[in-house]
Amino acid sequence: MNIGIIGAGQIGSALAVRLTSLGHTVYIANSRGTETLTDLAQKTGATAVTAQEAAQRGTDLIVVTIPLENIPKLPKDLLANVPAEVPVIDTSNYYPMLRDGHIPELETGDLTESGWVQQHLGRPLVKVFNNIFAAHLENNGKPAGTPGRIALPVASDDAAAKQKVMALVEELGFDALDGGTMRESWRQQPGGPIYCNDLPADQVEHHLASLGTERTEAQHAEFLANHNAAEKHMEAQGIKLK
Ligand SMILES: NC(=O)c1ccc[n+]([C@@H]2O[C@H](COP(=O)([O-])OP(=O)(O)OC[C@H]3O[C@@H](n4cnc5c(N)ncnc54)[C@H](OP(=O)(O)O)[C@@H]3O)[C@@H](O)[C@H]2O)c1
């Protein structure tokens, strides 16, 4: 596949390493320019490009993997000429304290995190890879059938795009599970039981089923409180996201 990756940080780099090793052609972009991507390009065999070029040359798949707060800074017409059948993945998570500041629709729960990104980018997206650490994405994929293989939910309103991305998740070494619609993607967000816990399929399926599909106010408040505590813990450990 020809894959465009917008964002060359932890997740973008991990995906570039794995996807090129599987034989895919990867075009990768950051905000500072191609000259700053020489090392990554050498390490992975990916081609350094601009974000616009990644959107054009990723003719089979595009991945947007930049900090949530930077999504509104992407060019408004970035995906305007991308055919509808090309899946566009979003890996976003909302870190209000450490990085993104307060976004009203995410605080109220009116939108899910990738639902908010979807509004900005103006087309259906596929939410995946948000609930696994970059190093685990790069190193912990296993052949199908391996006991304890990590399962990753894939959520989207576009069923065909979801199926294509689920096949890629399997190719990368993870059990792909249907995470429902974008409105239901709150279940894989920070503060919930399947966020960065590297769970196998039976446990992810159990949590998806027991959480239900329609988020209650109590669930929203619980996830926010859990995530707030996690952010405070990260801050106390000196972890910086920007
Ligand atoms: N790190 C993880 O383990 C992990 C796991 C799951 C999900 N996520 C989520 O995935 C997203 C990306 O995380 P990350 O950890 O990979 O981020 P990161 O390491 O901070 O890297 C962000 C990348 O985005 C690029 N970027 C920022 N603004 C841009 C713009 N306007 N146009 C093009 N490129 C731009 C940056 O380029 P410059 O450096 O040139 O600005 C950088 O390459 C976040 O929402 C994060 O919460 C992260």
TrEMBL record:
InterPro entries: NAD(P)-bd_dom_sf, P5C_Rdtase_cat_N, STEAP_metalloreductase. GO terms for molecular function: oxidoreductase activity. This is NAD(P)-binding domain-containing protein. It comes from the Bacteria. It comes from Hymenobacter cellulosilyticus. The keyword NAD does not apply. Residues 3-94 form the Pyrroline-5-carboxylate reductase catalytic N-terminal domain. The keyword Aminoacyl-tRNA synthetase does not apply. Keywords: Oxidoreductase.
